[in-house]
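Customer escalation, tier 2.

The customer says the design service returned an amino acid string that "doesn't look like it belongs to this structure." They asked us to rerun it and document both sides in this ticket. The original C-alpha cells are below, unchanged.
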C-alpha cells in the first residue's frame, strides 16, 4: 500500500514538472511574418498569435531580417515579439467598488513611457524580443465582462497584455484611416 501511494505521489510530482515550453509568437502587424524556431518555419498571420510547443533549453530564433538570437527557454511560457512592438501590461479589477481602492496590484506603480506618452500607474511596458508570460490575457484576447470570485475574496485582478491598437481603441483614437485597425474592445 505504501508503494502504491509513493508511486502515485511520484507520478503527480513528475507530471507537474513539464519539460516543455509554450511559445506564443505574436504578430500585431497588418502583414504575415515568418519566424524560424531552430529548423521549424512558422508563418504568423496578421494580427494573430501562433503557439509553438518545444522542449526546455537553448533554441535558435531566426527573424525575417535573418537576425539570429539564441535563448535558453526554462520557464513554462514565453511570448516572442518578432516585430519588436510595444505592449502595455495592466490589471483589470473585478469586484465590489467598495474594495477597489484597497486592491493590491502585482504590477508596481511607476512612471512609464508608452507610445511617447508618459503615464503613471500600475503599468509595465513589454517590448523585448522574448518575454516570459506573466499575464492571463494576451494581445487581442478580450477580458471577460464578469468572473466568479472565490468565496472569502472581495475582488480579483486579471492581468492583460494590450497591443498598441487596443490601447488606441480604449483611448478613443480614430484608427479608421489606418490599415492596422482592430475591433474595439468591449467593456
Amino acid at each position: 500500500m505504501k508503494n502504491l501511494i509513493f508511486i502515485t505521489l511520484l507520478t503527480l510530482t513528475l507530471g507537474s514538472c513539464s519539460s516543455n515550453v509554450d511559445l506564443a509568437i505574436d504578430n500585431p502587424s497588418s502583414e504575415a511574418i515568418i519566424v524560424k524556431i531552430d529548423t521549424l518555419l512558422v508563418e504568423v498571420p496578421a494580427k494573430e498569435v501562433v503557439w509553438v510547443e518545444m522542449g526546455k533549453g537553448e533554441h535558435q530564433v531566426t527573424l525575417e531580417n535573418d537576425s539570429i538570437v539564441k535563448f535558453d527557454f526554462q520557464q513554462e511560457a514565453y511570448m516572442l515579439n518578432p516585430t519588436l512592438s510595444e505592449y502595455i501590461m495592466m490589471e483589470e479589477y473585478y469586484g465590489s467598488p467598495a474594495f477597489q481602492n484597497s486592491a493590491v496590484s502585482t504590477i508596481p506603480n511607476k512612471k512609464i513611457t508608452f507610445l511617447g506618452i508618459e503615464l503613471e500607474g500600475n503599468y509595465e511596458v513589454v517590448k523585448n524580443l522574448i518575454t516570459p508570460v506573466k499575464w492571463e490575457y494576451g494581445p487581442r484576447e478580450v477580458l471577460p465582462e464578469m468572473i466568479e470570485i472565490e468565496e472569502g475574496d472581495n475582488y480579483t485582478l486579471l492581468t492583460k497584455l494590450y497591443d498598441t491598437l487596443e490601447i488606441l481603441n480604449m483611448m478613443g483614437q480614430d484608427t479608421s484611416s489606418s490599415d492596422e485597425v482592430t475591433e474595439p474592445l468591449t467593456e
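Tier 2 assessment: The sequence is consistent with the input. The chain has two helices and 13 strands. The longest strand covers residues 87-95. Sent an explanation to the customer and offered a walkthrough call.
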